[in-house]
Amino acid sequence: MSISSALQTGVSGLQANSTAVGGISENIANANTVGYRRGFAHMVTTTASGGNGSGVLAVKAEEQLDIESSGGLISTTSETDMAISGNGFFVVSVNPDETTQTNYHLTRAGAFVADEDGNLQNAAGFYLAGFPYDADGELGEIDRSSFSSMETVNVGNISLSAEATTETSVVGNLPSEETGMATPGSPFVTSSEIFTGLGETQRISFSWQPSSTSDQWTLTIADQNGADMGSVDVTFNDSGSLAGSPASYANASSVATAPAAFAFDTATGEATITLDNGTTPQAIVIGLGEPGSFEGITQFAGDFSQSFERDGSSVGELIRTEIDEEGTLYGVFDNGISRPLYQIPVATVDNPSGLSEEKGNAYSLTQQSGAFFALEANSGSTGGINAYALEGSNVDIAEEMTDLITVQRAFSTNATVITTVDEMMEETTRLKR
């Protein structure tokens, strides 16, 4: 190796270690940046003459990102902060409802807040993308290998229209000791809330009259105005494995005045009532429980209890959101309804190290990153989503400081080599004098 070659080698060492120091400084500066992935430099042997296989050995720094190592989770108080525990990335876009596929990126930075239009946007300005649910709570057909089925997640100005009640079920217990008395006691009366097509709240009442015959009751159902619509006798099993369950329904009769109506199916234990509460009467199916079933009304010794489960709702305004581990974002409305709004997928690629770094802690797909899929969170190899949490940087300050000392020593030593070579060249110049 000649003196000039030694000079070139020393210069390459200065350049490579300068690059390494730059990466370390970026890591330290971003030690508290949400979702940040540290960079590092591999020192690779090369030739000072530049790649044709000739020349003296030198060194260059090849920069890479430690994308696959996770940072620690940090608890927050924001309902739209999210962190992925495990593999995968959030899908984000440069603009809301982006149509240009190359403007979609992947990120682990989940500090999302709603902008003035209700779109969830992280601190870097990227918009969260997800698969929208329809009004029936279904995703429908979606393409998980592209961004085409995704929309920007929006939590602003969402409301539920009113929905008429069509079904209700009765659950509870009738006290068996109240039946079989020569003079039966007063009926047990309760009522269930229902909703009209306009979202108006009305109530239908249920009157359970104990009979002088043991284990037998007469149910009378009244409409929203308190007028009786019809009745049915219910006999309960008094022994055996089915004790306490309905044995049979009999003597169903209607006293409703058209267009109101009352009918009862003794085989299924379902009453169908038609309420005269609008231009088009409202039909509601009321389930008491099939004979031999414990899923509806029962009769055991003890206290009277009765509750109702029904569909339908009044008009609802969104009051908050909730996100589960599978990435489903639910809207909770002021009418008590909770409805899925979006599935927030967790994106995976075959080779995360092949992703291309973008500003804002985001990464774009490349040929080296391999196939892309937007999968349901917490399924298979994908990580789960933690709400009220953020993922911190994967930078270890102690490790960075150690690397900084090592690189600084290497830089200083290369500088010493250059100084020494300079002195030798100067001494060589003086030989001709």
Keywords:
single chain; 433 residues; mainly beta; 10-stranded antiparallel beta sheet; 6-stranded mixed beta sheet; 2 helices; 31 strands; 14% helix
Characterization of this structure:
This protein has 433 residues and is mostly beta strands. The chain has helices spanning 3-29, 397-430; strands at residues 39-47, 57-65, 73-75, 82-85, 90-93, 104-107, 112-114, 120-122, 127-132, 151-152, 159-160, 167-175, 188-195, 201-210, 216-222, 228-236, 246-254, 261-265, 270-275, 282-287, 297-300, 305-310, 316-323, 328-333, 338-343, 346-349, 356-358, 362-364, 372-375, 384-387, 389-391. The strands form 8 sheets. Strands 5, 6, 9, 10, 11, 23, 24, 25, 27 and 28 form a 10-stranded antiparallel sheet that branches. Strands 12, 18, 19, 20, 21 and 22 form a 6-stranded mixed sheet that branches. A hairpin with a 4-residue loop joins strand 24 and strand 25. The two termini are 25 Å apart. 33% of the residues are buried.
